[in-house]
Amino acid sequence: MTDDPIDLGELGLDAGGAVLLRLGLAERPVGAAVPIAGSAGDFAVHLRAFARAEGHGFAETPADQRLAGPRAPSGALVVATLTRGDAAPSRWRGAERAGAATADGAVDHPKASWGLAARGAMVEAGAPAFRFALADRDEVWADDAGALYREAAAAQWDPGAAIPWDAPRPHPAFVEDALVQVLTYLIENETAALVVPARFCAQVHPHFREVMQLLAIQAADEARHIEVFTRRALLGRKELGLSTGGGQRSLQTLVDEPDFALASFLLSVLGEGSFLHLLGFLHVHAPDRCTAEIMRLAARDEARHVAFGMAHLKRHAAHDPTLLGRLRLAIERRHDALRHTAGLNAEVFDALVVLAAGELSPAAIARGHAAVADLQRQMDTGRQARLRRLGFPAEEARDLSALHTRNFM
Amino acid sequence: MTDTLLLGAVAYDPKVVTIWDGFQRWFAARGLPFDYVLYTNYERQVEQHFAGAFHVAWNSPLAWLQAQRVAKARGRDCRAVAMRDTDQDLTSVVVVRADAPIRSVADLRGKRLGVGAGDSPQATMIPLQQLAEHGLVGGRDCEVRRFDVLVGKHGDHVGGERDAAKALMRGEVDAACMIDGNHLLFAQEGTLPRGQTRVLLQTGAYDHCNFTVLDGAPTALMQRFTDLLFGMRYDDPEVRPLLDLEGLKAWRPGRTSGYALLERGCEQFGWLQPFLQHMAAG
User: Fold this and answer.
1) A50 to chain B: which residues are within 8 Å by CB?
2) Domains of chain B in sequence order
């Protein structure tokens, strides 16, 4: 411990001197008399104000006695003596560390008062409590969430650069019409896929930052998909296609689902899982290179969304034996709610057939129809596989997959 | 009313509600029924204090002197029971531009002096009193330009001082008055560019607000109130945000020695007279 003055030299308290002063005072014990030397303009005036505001005692050295006092190394005179107060250490009494910054540093039940603080930060006691509905690790966590986020961040693509917007579009007008109808349907579905994670992103306790980041980038992915689908549709047509009440009702049951696990199950595992096959189908049957590339890149993004949904639901199911039962009920409830709706609208179904056919001859349409039927079988097979991976017995997985909305998402 | 301690305060800023609501909860949790009444100006508050509308006033220095004088005239007892640590030993400064050929108070003769609100002890009254003691009488020896923001608030709002500081940099006044801490604040925030101003005069030290009580206030409730005030600790996370909002680290016993400069100014310039006459007439 030292009795030496804190020497600010020519540095004023209005120019950063307060930083040095705080650091210097922190090294002295509470109650210590600390001489302060400085030669900046109005230094004593500012020092008095600083001391009062920060809770330190202040005794100015009378001007006529300063010269007789010690000189600091900078040559500045001691203009006052502060008595160090205890406000600074008092502020941090009772503070606690919000877990640890590393991936394994998340705790099971982060406190509401940790709020927006970085995981691993020292949080002042008495910080305001935030109401994050998803504050239970078992509800949201996936062990590879961090890795998936990093992968997603690295895989972001720029629609302007990644898509060959000027590629030739040699196909006939009825194919373009069919494509625009499918794109209209995709935009509507991707909007649901944006809104759902965006809503839960704001409900996840930020302590689970990898999950929050992943949901945020998932929403950003969907925003980009909406942009490219719209841009592609407007390349060949001035207006978009049809949106049906049945389609929207199906999506509404998804958007309205308040439970994170259930919404994530219906959206990511079943809906986006089915969309993976649809985007693959559209990549194969795209009438032009621009569309094909859009579908390829969108499918790559969707695969990550499905992977996260699977990862955190698998983990959740392992910690909560009631989860699978709730997931089953969610499918059944949604099926009941949509029982009297049309499912996939006829315009979208027909458009998919036409895209796969490429021409309007009966033989070509038969091929297209078979391709769409095959697509639906692939979707069903994929859903069953994912349901089994979540822990559903094969028979139940088959039954549940059959109950999934005919609207695909 | 006597089972609840009532406080009067002036609403100089919306945060006043946050502060007293917070203290109300904190006091209630410790067994002190507490409520408060807000006024738009200190004159109404002092008047209502004598009318018995509440028990204890959070008074500005000028309101304290007003209450003290009225009490004296009426044969009542008036005490300052507590104040913030930051209410003690303030100084104000008269600031000029660094390049101005003003080296002493005498050089301000014939110049324009920017002050805060007309009823601001710190930005107007005490600087004018101190300048007068140095031989320069505002209004007679120099022009006084007032920057009135929220008159009746006794300068609690920083706006008048900031406006005076800005006028100084625009060259509309030759000197500006402000609390020492605001000179540091204005320099840090850039209202007064660093190194472009100079303190011409620093006033003597003075005290600012206090909790004022008149005789007849409920003794037990007041005792509990001051006990709780002095028991507030900055390391209490529940009360710390309120202390931060109110700008203190600890409450101190009230003292009245720090009002001498303002009192001298009031005697010299008759600042209290209109209010005292109003109260006498009432």
Assistant:
1) 184
2) 5-87+208-281 (3.40.190.10), 92-202 (3.40.190.10)
